[in-house]
């Protein structure tokens, strides 16, 4: 939220408090994040700059910080494994489809029970005469349950004039497929088409192979006709980019990961307005410069971090265990030393009531003894009374992720996914995730018995 709007909300806040007669204690919010005992898991499959013949598998609780699960996790019996796309089928298996070679007319299939150990199934020949290149197959599961693969095909003698086609599985075993159908309106010379469906509209993100931009089209049918809505550098992704892959975040936003192959970077960006605008591209921490053309699968799985709600607790720093999150007299958040010899006021400043998240009841908010909530403002942690706005509720909501030490927690911003509460020079901030041990420790806290 920009400063002008935030200042307006800040001015309205005190007026609301006067009208309501005191601190605003929020009611129960709706929930999009998984409930207690469950967690979101994002699985990424990719090939790498160092090998086109090996699959690497990563996972993440937040679609930002990915940890290697296995690499190489799969090597096909022959050919390549470029552009690996993953989904979980109704039979309980995970399936891959992938590009088998720079030239030819086949795509590959493999499956797994655990995402990290894969078995080759078969190479499938696309039944179109004269194909010279068959690239970037992507799974698309429609709302009717049909299993589709979107694939880029050309019969040209060079890597040009690609067109998007779809094939649909005609049996549950995914061994027989319909005749290919062209996606009308996408092409010629568009590749790496990735589709998501929102409501009754199909949204296609596809690389213009002539201009090297990722462009955007919509249709009311999977096979089109598609209408190009945004072209050129409409989203700020830049040029010489490819391999768009979208996944929905727990807060309802959409994240695109894509390959800045010419610069040797891997990026992500978020949208919250039905794909109209996007956040500034951010490099995928720890993986940018190594992975190529990935896809991301979102699942809800057992596990996660659960905090007690409607209970008072203190937040102890993992790497400075004599320091605790506090609200100082300037209303800003810090980690300060607290001990049995500390004054009652200091102990009270380090004590908070954990409540269901104001913006999502399956996340958390933290309220001090005066009724103020821990929230971020220009990415600095501070404590303010609620003004009842949606912006405030989101600023004051944090989703629990596993911390760097056993039993610890990291608190991810609800409205800025990928940013975490962390201390820096003992000040509490909401900073972008960094793939370093220092950041992971700085952003980890142990929830302990309250000081007051």
From TrEMBL:
| Any Gene Ontology biological process | L-arabinose metabolic process
Alphabetically, the GO molecular function entries are:
alpha-L-arabinofuranosidase activity
Q: Which domain of life is it from?
A: Bacteria
The residues forming the signal peptide are 1-31
In this chain the Alpha-L-arabinofuranosidase B arabinose-binding domain maps to 314-447
Show the Gene3D superfamilies listed in the entry: 2.80.10.50, Glycosyl hydrolase domain, family 43
Entry keywords, A to Z: Glycosidase, Hydrolase, Signal
Q: Does the keyword Signal apply?
A: yes
* Pathway it works in: Glycan metabolism; L-arabinan degradation
Q: Which InterPro entries match?
A: AbfB_ABD (IPR007934), AbfB_ABD_sf (IPR036195), GH43_arabinanases (IPR050727), Glyco_hydro_43 (IPR006710), Glyco_hydro_beta-prop_sf (IPR023296)
Q: Which PANTHER family match?
A: ARABINAN ENDO-1,5-ALPHA-L-ARABINOSIDASE, ARABINAN ENDO-1,5-ALPHA-L-ARABINOSIDASE A-RELATED
Question: Family assignment?
Answer: Belongs to the glycosyl hydrolase 43 family.
Name used for this protein in its record: Arabinofuranosidase
* Organism, scientific name: Streptomyces viridochromogenes
